[in-house]
Design a protein that fits this description.
Blueprint (H helix, E strand, L loop, with lengths): L7 H8 L19 E2 L13 H6 L6 E5 L5 H17 L4 E5 H5 L4 H11 L5 E4 L3 H6 L7 H11 L11 E2 L2 E2 L2 E6 L1 E6 H6 L10 H10 L6 E3 L7 H13 L17 H15 L18 H7 L3 E7 L1 H8 L8 E4 L15 E6 L6 H13 L1 H10 L4 E2 L5 H4 L1 H5 L1 H10 L16 H9 L1 H10 L4 H18 L7
Parallel strand pairs: 2-3, 2-4, 9-10
Antiparallel strand pairs: 1-3, 4-12, 5-6, 7-12, 7-13, 8-10, 8-11
Helix pairs in contact: 1-14, 3-15, 7-14, 10-11, 12-13, 19-21, 20-21
């Protein structure tokens, strides 16, 4: 196996590069956030880049924000590995989870406010939109780091260029791809004589889920409530039916269309028509992002669409459902059937960060160190997968994990459709629309009695206003 490594000279040059910002006192995150204790200075033989070593001190701790996933061992690995590394370097660190950092506000809004006030964290690992963060002038270009990682692992997975590579520069460093898709009970569908892998449209999937349902076991474990999973199913159904929030140019809102009305009617029928009621678990319309994980792991539902944590946590916890679980690339509709894409979790360095050099060193250490990468991938089996082309063959762990390898074709697909922006380009304006919950409001509106046509029209008009706020025409 060819295990390329980043040269020490390249590592230090990138980690300790010049910093063009005024040194600012770090503002400590909320008191509830865990913090790493200071450790003794490293031995001379282990001395690191001077720029990083001299900047991180008790007055200016390395301030890191980590998002928290529905997966204990993944969270624990990153927190411990990062704390251990920082202690070895003799640095002081303030470590906070992103929800605690946001303290009730939106995470993107909180980051923007911190940068504008001069109290910016140094390093963020999250799934936030690089496009939106860049449009708010909150992040530093990280093209040098991406180039360094690609020297070790080969090119970034094709789909990950979307929204991260902007005007020729990278505004985030992909850490790993995070699997999302369909997870199903193999025993339930096989027992009913259904080959679910042949199902490529949601209408056929709906029929299959109804067929395996019983009074205590429910086929369709997907919510449309405001949540990441709820957003995803709305996006996929509208795209499958050939509907888009915008036109091909990304300049105009195109939500109020016959295709959108048809797609939303499919959603309404699925959740409101008594024909499909036997496949819906109790309370599904009020679920959040944790609910379907718990229902699947508790063996209450036969199919759900979720991040790979639903399987990874079941495997790590030794739950019987893990051995019964299969992965399905989610289906589509009558217009678009195949558009499965695998997103990522990324590293960001914020503008105004006091410890830019140290933050770069952390990114390179945790992303180019194959042993650390394999340990992270192993901490979350088949949820965290390689974000770089050659890492699939270099990672011993990934090669040994059958579920991860099932996802590889989708992860490396260079023709994936971004369901959220299709048929146009992604943009900060669309991210703002998603964050505002406009389409969730649209769905809730027709679920609670408004006609689909009226709900779609209202959503269209609201989206036009958002586009105009971003300097786009929005309507012709």
């Amino acid at each position: 196996m060819d295990r390329k490594t980043l040269s020490r000279r390249s590592f230090l040059r990138l980690a300790g590069g010049a910093i063009g910002v005024t040194a600012l006192a770090a503002c400590a995150p909320p008191a509830a956030a865990p913090a790493a204790a200071p450790a003794a200075a490293p031995a001379a033989a282990e001395a690191a880049a001077p720029a990083a070593e001299t900047m991180v001190d008790s007055a200016h701790p390395l301030w890191v924000i980590l998002d928290i996933d529905f997966h204990d061992t993944y969270n624990e690995y990153t927190q411990k590995a990062l704390s251990d590394y920082v202690a070895e370097r003799g640095w002081v660190m303030e470590l906070a989870d992103s929800q605690g950092f946001a303290a009730g506000s939106g995470e993107t809004d909180r980051i923007a406010a911190a940068v504008q006030s001069g109290d910016a964290p140094d390093l963020v690992r999250h799934t936030l939109s690089p496009e939106l963060l860049h449009s708010l002038d909150t992040t530093q270009s990280l093209s040098d780091l991406v180039a360094a990682v690609e020297e070790v692992y080969g090119p970034v997975a094709p789909y990950l260029k979307t929204g991260k590579l902007i005007d020729g520069e990278w505004w985030a460093v992909p850490y790993h791809q995070r699997v999302g898709g369909g997870y199903y009970r193999k025993d339930a569908f096989e027992g009913a004589g259904i080959d679910i892998q042949t199902i490529r449209t949601y209408d056929k999937l709906r029929e299959a889920c109804l067929a395996v349902s019983t009074p205590e076991f429910f086929g369709w474990g997907i919510t449309i409530n405001r949540s990441g999973d709820g957003n995803s199913i709305i996006q996929r159904i509208k795209c499958g039916w050939g509907a888009g929030w915008q036109d091909e140019t990304g300049q105009y809102i195109n939500t109020n269309s016959p295709e959108m009305v048809e797609a939303m009617n499919f959603i309404k029928d699925t959740y409101m028509d008594p024909q499909w009621a036997p496949m819906l678990p109790p309370g599904v319309l009020a679920w959040n992002d944790i609910s379907n994980n718990e229902a699947f792991q508790g063996e209450v539902i036969a199919y759900t669409e979720n991040a790979g944590t639903v399987y990874a946590k079941a495997l790590k916890d030794g739950l019987p459902v893990a051995a019964k679980t299969g992965y399905l690339a989610p289906p589509g509709g009558p217009v678009n059937q195949e558009f499965n894409t695998i997103g990522s979790k990324d590293w960001f360095i914020l503008k105004g960060a006091h410890n830019t050099a140290a933050a770069k060193e952390v990114i390179l250490e945790f992303t180019t160190n194959l042993d650390k990468m394999d340990a992270m991938l192993a901490s979350s089996p088949a949820y965290a997968i390689p974000a770089y082309t050659n890492l699939w063959d270099m990672s011993v762990y990934t090669q040994s994990n059958e579920m991860s390898m099932q996802v590889k074709p989708a992860a490396l697909d260079d023709s994936g459709i971004n369901a959220g922006s299709w048929p146009g380009p992604s943009s900060p304006a669309l991210t703002a629309i998603e964050n505002s919950g406009i389409w969730n409001d649209m769905v809730n509106s027709f679920i609670t009695g408004t006609s689909v046509e009226e709900a779609v029209k209202i959503a269209h008009d609201r989206m036009v206003l958002v586009f105009k706020e971003f300097g786009l025409p929005g309507e012709k």
